[in-house]
Amino acid sequence: MSSSARTSMNSQRRFSQQDNVRLLRSLIHEHELLPGERLGSEREISAQLGITRADLRIALASMEKAHEIVRRIGRGGGIVISDERLERNINTVESLPMIARRQGRVLRSKVLSAVIAPASASDTRLLRLQGFAPNQIHNIYNITRLRSIDGSPLSLETSHLPSDMFPGLLNKDLTTSFYRRFEEDYGIHPSDVDETLETIEADARDAELLEVGVGTALVRIRRIACMADGRPFERAIDVYIASRMRFAMHHSGYVRLSATANR
Question: Residue 187: CB partners within 8 Å, gap ≥ 6?
């Protein structure tokens, strides 16, 4: 064995799993890394801490199970700091189950109610039912689902969908991603999505379903999704437990909106 190989082996100390976890936490604390920031690759961290990659993987698995970190593959991957919150990009139409899966989490849906109902005045207006189907009776699907992550309630999702666009929808598995079902079964996918985000407090109904106290901070997103021809196909309201979510937005530039910018 060469002297350099012996030196490399001697520099890799052997600690217990708990010791290695403490080393990783100290590294995170020392660099003041925030959720979403990258700790590094296994090779980089192993060399920095002087432990074997096998021991490192065991420690990382323990931290990932506790949702302290997320291991991502591919370009820009590596070990990413986490704090148990699910991160959702505001300007994306990626489904919530896919977002959770990418972050190493398991999201499940439970259908609380699914009925056909007459369109309300606001449904008719926001889904533009009169303009796109003027001679039809306007009915909608009214579907409410409870979304849970790792076994704990995360959000309530209420969707209003024009029934004429999705025949037979209530006979399908409504616990799966709606957008994937729209695409695969009906050839419908979002071209434009408008969302409004606001904070609210949980009322008695939301608190009971989400298993939180009345007055707990929630984040409500109102969404209208349209096809390429401009026809709306979804009106939805998602309500998230604020302490379990993080919302991010990534953009490549800054747009001035001030009316006085050119004066």
Answer: none
> What distance separates the 2 farthest-apart alpha carbons in the chain?
85
**Of 115, 132, 149, residue with least CA distance to 188:** 132
Q: How many domains is the chain partitioned into structurally?
A: 2
- Residues 148, 129: contact at Cβ < 8 Å? no
Flag whether 263 is in a domain: no
Closest CA to 61 of 70, 73, 52: 70
- Per residue in 206-256, pLDDT (tens digit) is 999 999 999 999 999 999 999 999 999 999 999 999 998 988 776 655 555
Residue-number span of the structural domain to which 98 is assigned:
86-248
pTM attached to this predicted model:
0.72
Q: How many CA atoms lie within 13 A of 182 on its CB side?
A: 21
Residue at 179: amino acid letter: Y
CATH (domain of 189): 3.40.1410.10
Q: Are residues 122 and 229 in the same domain?
A: yes
